[in-house]
Every structure is written in C-alpha cells, then in structure tokens.
Write a structure and sequence with these properties.
Elements: E1 4-9, E2 14-24, E3 29-38, E4 41-53, E5 56-73, E6 76-94, E7 100-112, E8 115-116, E9 120-125, E10 130-135, E11 138-139, E12 142-156, E13 159-166
Antiparallel strand pairs: 1-2, 2-3, 3-4, 4-5, 5-6, 6-7, 7-12, 8-11, 9-10, 12-13
C-alpha cells in the first residue's frame, strides 16, 4: 500500500506532499520507500532488508535531501539549494541466547558538497568615503563517515545491557 499525505505549512515552506511505501518482496526480503516533495524541500529514503537466515539480516539504506536555504553573506542574503546524500549498511546477528542476545555492525556515510556561488561586488559611496568590496560567496560542505557496533547482553531476565563502539 502507498499512503499519500499532504501538509500545508504556510509560514515555512508552502505545500508539501509525501508518501510511504513498504512491501515484502520475497519471504526473506522487504523494501521501504519514504518521500516528501515540496516548494523548499525534497527528500527520499529507500530501505532494503534481507534475512540471510532466522538469525542474520542485512539492511541497506540510501537517501537524499534537497533543501532551498537562505545564507546571510556580508553582501546580503542568498537562497540556494543544498543537497545531502547518505547511505548506510547494517548487519545484525540475533543469537537469542541467555547471555549474549545480539551483535550488530553498521557503516554509514553522509555527504553535503561545498557550493561556490558567484562573487558579489558592491560599494559604499558617501561624500567622505568610497569603498569597493568583493564578497567571494562560498558554502562549506561536510562529509561524515563512520562505523559502529553494538552487543546486546541479557545477564538476567530483567536486565538488558547494550554496549556500543563507534568511530
């Protein structure tokens, strides 16, 4: 099924429409899609999961977010589109044992490229002062990469201990 929904946020971004889709492809595989489309923001996310066996699964996530944002430079406001791409891979091993319950390993990346806008030249001209300025308008992007793992312990029937590591 594909539920479609619409939001109207007059003060923020205008009209937006979105949807969610999830489906089992086979007995072992599933696919999920989320999307939002609007005047100032477009986003999509795809999750695909596969059960290797009853104790192991792999999940792949890919997504993109595009937003029209305003940046305040010395030479004035500039509205431009910024794009963020992301992806992740997760492996889960579910033991269901009394002491060690599960182990998980995740790797992810998120990348927002830098943007070079056109330079803007402006001046101040008064009776006593004339200044000419050039503003090189650059927006610094960023990349985040990482790995993390988690172990889930159940030392007693009433206790769950989750231990995570990451870089």
């Amino acid at each position: 099924a594909l539920p479609i929904y619409a939001d109207f946020v007059k003060e923020v971004s205008g009209f937006a429409i979105g949807g969610v889709f999830a489906k089992s492809i086979t007995d072992n595989a599933a696919l999920g899609v989320i999307f939002n489309v609007g005047a100032d923001r477009n986003e999509w996310l795809v999750n695909a999961g596969y059960d290797i066996n009853q104790n192991q699964r792999v999940i792949l996530s890919l997504g993109q977010l595009r937003q029209n944002l305003e940046f305040n430079f010395q030479s004035g406001l500039e509205k431009t589109q910024v794009t963020q791409n992301s992806g992740a891979l997760s492996y889960q091993y579910l033991l269901g044992k009394s002491w060690l319950n599960a182990a998980e390993f995740n790797a992810y990346i998120s990348d927002t490229p830098s943007i070079n806008l056109n330079d803007k030249t402006w001046y101040t001209n008064t009776d006593s002062l004339y200044e000419l300025w050039n503003d090189p308008r650059r927006i610094a992007g960023a990349k985040v990469e990482g790995v993390q793992s988690r172990l889930v312990f159940t030392p007693t029937t009433k206790t769950t201990l989750k231990l995570g590591f990451g870089a």
